[in-house]
Amino acid sequence: MELRWNLDTLYTSFNSPKFKGDVELLDHQIANLNVWAEKKLQDTTRAASKIEEFLRLYNEYKSLYSCLYCYAYLILNSDNTNIEAMDVLDNIELKDSAVAEAFVKFNKWFDSLNNIDELIDSSPYLIEHSFYLKELLLQSKYLLSEEAEVIIEKMQSTGSRAWQRAYMELTSTVSMDIDIEGESEEMSLAELRNMAYDKSESLRKTAYFAEKEGCKSISQACAACLNGISGEALTIYDMRGYKSPLEKVLMVSRMDYETLNAMFSAIEESLPIFHKYYHKKAEILGHKVNLPFYDIFAPVSNNNTKISYSDAKDLIVSSFESFSEELADFAKKVFDERWIDAEPRKGKGNYGLCVDIFPIRESRIITNFTGNYGDIGVIAHEIGHAYHSYCLRDEKMLNTEYPNPIAETASIFCETIVNNALLNILQRNEGLSILEKSISDVGYYIVDFYGRYNFENKLFERRKLGQLSVEELNELMTNCMVEAYGESIDSETIHQYMWMNKIGYYMAGNEFLNFPYSFGVLFSKGLYAEYINKGEEFVTQYNKFLSATSKNNIVDIAKTIDIDVHSIEFWRNALKLIEKDIEEFISRG
């Protein structure tokens, strides 16, 4: 089977007539939007008609922008040395900032209207976009003047986004020499970090401490980046009237504090369960007491059994058939139409990624298939993202965005289906490895991200008082990790520079890229528990749920499948599924 994707339904190259023509068309659409906003938003006459006109123009713009952006983004992620793709992506992002003035102008004008509900009800097209418009109305209360918003947008290119680029350059150019089988090899921080999964304990340990030293060498500069980005966020959100960056993130995530608090209360109760798992892992790996931090992600088996890409496809499709024919047929289409770039090669990122291209009703997936059984779960995970997009295929472009916490739901649900199938067919040692990898991933999103969430909360609180030194950041991170992992790990081995190895802290406007993943893991587990209880009748509910995710808040989305996310019992039940896996791992190990 072909392990490289086909992007021809999008574009054949940056130099193709279609790509060049679409770039020109995008410029034309941007000019049209700005001229339209300047002329049409002088008064509130024919308000319903003007709202509809704007939405049609903006839908067209976002659709074309999405195609151009996704193509450049996909090319760059499949080859991060591609300078042309970097330049094209920068250029496309710059064009998007040119629409900011028209968008802010419309938001301000829309907020000035008195009879919003009547206007929406007067047009089928507006009714179709009613949730999007209500979201705009809510967010417009936090907008500054048009002039101020445009100034912020422009200044961020030399402010937080410049700090972000500096951070990425710093962390991508540092390298360390380590000894591998008697030979010195130069490794980047990313390569050193990936060795956390290596089968050799000595190599894991060597790479871990080399990474710490590499981080230490650029810690002063990275601290400046983090202080600059977090300081700007506090200033801008305060100007806009948010109580905190967390309040802003919850609003954008369509999530409330009651849901967040219920989830974290359940997580805090469950931490001893995960500590039990880490203690058992330490025992299996031969550590006398606690698990060293460099062995958090260590494999517990040296099994080298391989599987072909073709057999991996068959296993995924057959596993999905146990849930629904529609999901299985979709997965077959993903493979047959070459939506996946699965070939490992130099210059390609070592991660799983799904990019949804709504205008052409397709997605593209990046993964690195090495023939290990663990690779199958990664592919299934990314197909789950694509299936979520498939369930929204009939929506207009402005109605395709779903909240971040929900984003991991379909992916982890699909991964769970496949992992359960693998456990049933694999030999004891192979099955133990799959089970442990699944628990390890969940532990990362629950325990590790609990520590990271607490770190970010405390970072913003401390940042209000002034800049934090490297030593203060190290202390803050270490304390938060100890709070999360407890006595199950060797605290002396904690990576105190972990505030440097997560890009989320450096992504301006995307604060708290931690709790949404915890939510996604637990919510998907909760859904799977519902599937176990309800069986076939749940399948229809599930598809309707995914279709509703782009036009509802999280509380209302959950209600479509009779789930109360305000109830701590829901989160406890989800965690019980994980506890069951941990108990099975302990008994098998």
Automatic annotation (TrEMBL):
Family annotation (InterPro entries): M3B_PepF_2, OligopepF_N_dom, OligoPept_F_C, Pept_M3A_M3B_dom, Pept_M3B_clade3, Peptidase_M32_Taq
One Pfam family, short name: Peptidase_M3_N
Cofactor: Zn(2+)
Keywords, alphabetical: Hydrolase, Metal-binding, Metalloprotease, Protease, Zinc
Domain of life, source organism: Bacteria
Matches recorded under SUPFAM superfamilies: Metalloproteases ('zincins'), catalytic domain (SSF55486)
The keyword Signal is assigned to this record: no
Cofactor: binding comment: Binds 1 zinc ion.
GO terms, molecular function: metal ion binding; metallocarboxypeptidase activity; metalloendopeptidase activity
Gene Ontology BP term (one): proteolysis
Stretches assigned to the Oligopeptidase F N-terminal domain: 115-173
Keyword Zinc-finger found: no
Domain Peptidase M3A/M3B catalytic per the UniProt entry, residue ranges: 195-575
Family designation: Belongs to the peptidase M3 family.
PANTHER family xrefs: CARBOXYPEPTIDASE 1, METAL-DEPENDENT CARBOXYPEPTIDASE
Protein name: M3 family oligoendopeptidase
